[in-house]
Amino acid sequence: MELRHLRYFVAVAEEKNFTRAAARLHIAQPPLSRQIQQLEQTLGVALFEKGSRPLRLTEAGQFFLTHARPLLEQVRDLKAMTQRVGQRQRNLSLGFVASTLYGELPDIVRHFRERHPEVDVTLHEMTTVEQIKALKEGRIDVGFGRLKSEDPSIRRILLREERMVVALFPGHRLAGGTGGVRLTELVHEKLLVYPKAPRPSFADQVLAMFSDANLRPDAVAEVRELQIAMGLVAAGQGIAIVPESVQAMHHRNVVYRRVDDKHAFSPILFSVRHMDHSQELENLLASVHTIYEELGIPHVKESL
Ligand code: BEZ
Fold this sequence. Notes:
The chain is an alpha/beta fold. It has helices spanning 3-15, 18-25, 29-43, 59-87, 105-115, 128-136, 202-212, 226-234, 279-295, and strands spanning 91-96, 120-125, 142-145, 154-168, 190-193, 219-222, 239-243, 255-258, 265-273.
């Protein structure tokens, strides 16, 4: 069985018609029919119900389609990813979620640039979900994100678990206290979560934190991005739960308190294409560890 058979089969199954599938594949209909017959002979089962118009898949055909589609997608991704690895000479393209700009990202990039001035570094703000897509399409080489999404083409390395804090308007009843705030004290507040799209996102991480603690906020408002959430907090329109590094974004009308809960942590993940062991990535990871060690930040030390 060749990849060609999978491509042909998926086209026929999606078009439910040999003529349309042949046109989509830019081949004539007789060779397409022969290839499908060959495939059915190799598998020893019928994939389409005989004589059906429009074409209907058998149970085996449906099963084959479900598995063939992701295989073809992986082949497409493999092409783009390999081209990127081959073309990447002296540049490294980084995707990052906005909140990491307030954490160690600037120091890490500066450290890397000083040691490797020959490498051209470009930075692109994008959500974790967008980073996975961009890695697979060869648009970035590494993503700094926060969501533990599963994808067989992507390798994720946990860098550290960052504590969450709650951002409050200074006049808020909880703003004056010292020490941490418990999640139970926050459930009756209007909770601002971001980003609204694409999902899943940091918004879902915050909501999961409540559900993991068997709590449900009374009111949730989804907003486009971190900066909007913080502006609305400053305007007294709600509270927001953010990683503690966001405190570096000094806002005149926002105060922060630590959230005391075992679930109140957000991971920082280094995502790369599986098996991409390039020297640039090794060097970037080394810069991350150096900065953590210089600043005394607890972290996980895993290599590529
Ligand atoms: C951090 O804040 O730990 C971090 C941010 C971006 C890249 C790597 C680490």
